[in-house]
Amino acid sequence: MFMSNSNFAHVVGSGPRHVIALNGWFGHAQGWGPFVQSLDTKSFTYAFMDQRGYGKRKGSGGPYTFAQIASDALALADELGWKTFALMGHSMGGGAIQMVLADAPDRVQALVGITPVPASGVPFDEAGWGFFSSAAKDVGARREILNITTGGRLTGTWLDAMAQSSLVHTDIEAFDAYLTAWAKTPFAERIQGKALPVLVVAGEHDPALGAETCKATWLQHYPNARLEVMSNAGHYPMDETPVALATVVEAFLREAMPG
């Protein structure tokens, strides 16, 4: 498997189909779990990008916004020499890839949203907002969010490791600011009706961004969107069902990006 690192991305593979991947709130460029081991690196090249304040970009400073993530993703594509590419995003990254589409629609060949945030934002009540906001400084809150969003069904060993990884690989100020970015940055009017191929992957056990939420948002926003529900997965199918996820994603991308 070919791997290289640009200034702020982890590049895997050497294939002709190009994919930029944006991680979720708890992730980073090298935090996509065992999913990466099942990717077809002869047919695809994946660039897993660190957002500002995450992974190799800890200490970079902001701004910690979807607009900045999109700008950085397009700069990465330019650095790699990719005129066109597909975008894959998990959770928060699923919202951010849509901002890339809004800013550069002629360059984006397809979207893959994995348990993704919609372009309309995510509603919170006051108590929920307070709880999620506390996670910036409270690793226990991070662990509980992981537990809730995977249906309260996974081993504490995994929950502990994921919460600690998120703490180690993110700046607190970035983690805090990105909550506002993914929850309270609605821009659906900028992507509504775009006719590119879109795959939306929902987890069977995801209580917030599951199939019904995806049907009410992504499938309404994109006329050519299709939904895949991953059995035995919650909000983190990259860890929970990695082989099945890689199979579904690459089957879609092969169809959307003929080699």
UniProtKB/TrEMBL annotation:
Record-level Gene Ontology MF annotations: hydrolase activity
Record keywords, A-Z: Hydrolase
Recorded GO CC terms: membrane
Domain AB hydrolase-1: 18-122
SUPFAM superfamilies assigned to the protein according to its UniProt record, in alphabetical order: alpha/beta-Hydrolases
Gene3D superfamilies in UniProt: alpha/beta hydrolase
Pfam families, alphabetized: Abhydrolase_1
Record keyword Hydrolase present: yes
PANTHER family, per database record: AB HYDROLASE SUPERFAMILY PROTEIN YCLE (PTHR43798:SF31), MONOACYLGLYCEROL LIPASE (PTHR43798)
Name of protein: Alpha/beta hydrolase
Native species: Hydrogenophaga crassostreae
